[in-house]
Design a protein that fits this description.
Elements: H1 2-18, E1 29-33, E2 38-45, E3 48-56, E4 88-93, E5 98-105, E6 110-118, E7 123-130, E8 133-142
Antiparallel strand pairs: 1-2, 1-8, 2-3, 4-5, 5-6, 6-7, 7-8
Length: 143
């Protein structure tokens, strides 16, 4: 009799937790690129996440001046500093530990459809795509 009660309680417990959706981890914080040349700060932007560049290994150009967003497709933004410019642009939740939306690449000045997906507490993959061709970079949570 006790055995049946324990089995019933275990079954009820398993069924009760089976319908609880997985809670997404918090992506907010500082992230370092795999090359170690860029740090971005990820933060919540309402229901979405956004990020901006907060550190560059080489923040100045050959002339010793702060790097600017010279490749931006929008000519009016080509004089803005790279530090402070966005990378993750209002990505919305797209499953547990994944956000989808747009990503900006200052290297070529283009915006791509993309995603940011956590793979554990300290690693994430940032992906940008054009049609079916995608490129990814791994980022590591840092201080």
């Amino acid at each position: 009799m006790i055995r049946r009660l324990l089995l019933a309680a275990l079954t009820v417990s398993m069924l009760a937790t089976a319908h609880i959706p997985a809670r997404a981890a918090d992506p907010a914080g500082l992230w370092l690129s795999a090359d170690g040349d860029v740090k971005m700060k990820v933060a919540k932007c309402g229901e979405a996440i956004c990020s901006s560049i907060v550190w560059l290994k080489e923040p100045n150009d050959a002339g010793g001046k702060p790097k600017v967003d010279k490749n931006n497709a929008d000519a009016s933004k080509r004089g803005r500093p790279v530090i402070g410019s966005g990378i993750i642009l209002a990505m919305k939740p797209d499953g547990a530990d994944k956000w989808s939306g747009h990503v900006y690449n200052a290297e070529d000045g283009k915006t791509y459809s993309g995603s940011f997906a956590l793979s554990g507490a300290t690693k994430a993959e940032l992906k940008g795509c054009v049609a079916i061709i995608c490129k990814s970079k791994t980022w590591t949570r840092t201080n």
